[in-house]
Design brief:
The protein is mostly helical and 176 residues long. The protein has one domain: Arp2/3 complex 21 kDa subunit ARPC3. The chain has helices at residues 44-55, 66-84, 91-103, 126-151, 161-164, and strands at residues 18-19, 22-23. Strands 1-2 form a two-stranded antiparallel ribbon. Helix 1 (44-55) packs across helix 2. The chain starts with 17 loop residues before the first strand and ends in a 12-residue tail after the last helix.
Length: 176
């Protein structure tokens, strides 16, 4: 059985916003950034969280488009988030930890320290690089907050052990 690809591949058109070869998809977000989509019912963040557990078991992933690269980045960021939360973290501790993680310095495709440069193209111009960095920061912030809501939906004093069981798995044997 192959890994699940992004459902947003069907929405890729010549007018779609793509930087390098990573899709800039609309996000229903409370954070300021280049992505907009306040009226969306289902966005790439929801898809990342929904597909994380199923795709984590795969070592190979066939990339079919730019939306898949956004999905890969999101899955690897969720994995990084789960590694920074422990079983005894309260919801407030997790919010503090993941907010700091989302806002930390991070590399984008084309930067020397970016671990997935073999899969991603670098932005062509400085303005594209700035836009991609802003999008990824907005993406990380929103993903961290929605992940916390999913982790603590049953009990705010401790995270779901079923989610934390995936913190040792590495999607595609990669990490951010």
């Amino acid at each position: 059985m192959p890994a699940y690809n992004s459902t947003f591949l069907a929405e890729e058109t010549p007018q779609s916003r793509v930087i390098g070869n990573m899709a800039i998809l609309p996000i229903r977000s409370q954070y300021k950034g280049p992505s907009f989509g306040q009226t969306l019912d289902y966005d790439i963040i929801d898809e990342v969280i929904d597909l994380f557990r199923a795709n984590t078991f795969f070592k190979n992933f066939e990339i079919k488009g730019a939306a898949d690269r956004t999905l890969i980045y999101g899955i690897l960021f969720v994995s990084q988030c789960l590694n920074s939360i422990n079983l005894s973290s309260s919801k407030n501790d997790a919010i503090r930890t993941l907010t700091n993680l989302a806002l930390d310095n991070f590399d984008i495709p084309g930067d020397v320290g970016f671990p997935l440069n073999s899969l991603y193209q670098a932005p062509r111009e400085k303005s594209e690089s700035t836009l991609l960095r802003q999008y990824i920061q907005q993406f990380r912030q929103e993903l961290a907050m929605r992940l916390i809501e999913r982790l603590y939906q049953d009990d705010i004093s401790k995270p779901s052990k079923f989610w934390l069981a995936f913190n040792r798995k590495k999607f595609m044997n990669k990490s951010l």
